Amino acid sequence: MESKTGSYASIDEYIALFPKDIQKKLEELRATIKAAAPDAKEKISYQMPTFDLYGNLVHFAAHKNHIGFYPTPSGIDAFKNELSVYEGAKGSVQFPLDKPLPLKLIRKIVKFRVAENVEKAEIKSSRKNR
């Protein structure tokens, strides 16, 4: 399976492009993110499903052999020990398609990112009100 590129108007459209087994994993990931960040808005950014809360929160994308999860470098760094069993880079981690998604870990990372974005928004707001 190749990563799908193109233009999609919604996360539903993006997920529908993939085979049923991959759709199931993407929907699990989406539901986990929604539960951890209920106030975040869904959008497509950088041609990937994205959750936004005072700025980009996390992105994800299906690839040939993995699902990429992009919680920014700070999200990776804060959980580097737990993520060390996965391939990844500065701002991303690769979850193999042939293994279950680490949903509890994903939930923790998303909650970390929510707190981070809320704190940044509050700092920004307090500077404006000076």
Poorly predicted runs are: none
Given this structure, which CATH class is correct? Alpha Beta
Report strand %. Answer: 15-25%
Q: Shape, please?
A: globular
Helix content: 40-55%
The fold-level CATH name is Aspartate Aminotransferase, domain 1
CATH architecture: Alpha-Beta Complex
The oligomeric state is single chain
Average predicted local confidence, pLDDT = 93
Can you summarize the main beta sheet? 6 strands, antiparallel
Domain module count: 1
Termini gap: 53 Å
State the main characteristics:
single chain; 130 residues; alpha+beta; Aspartate Aminotransferase, domain 1; 6-stranded antiparallel beta sheet; 5 helices; 23% strand
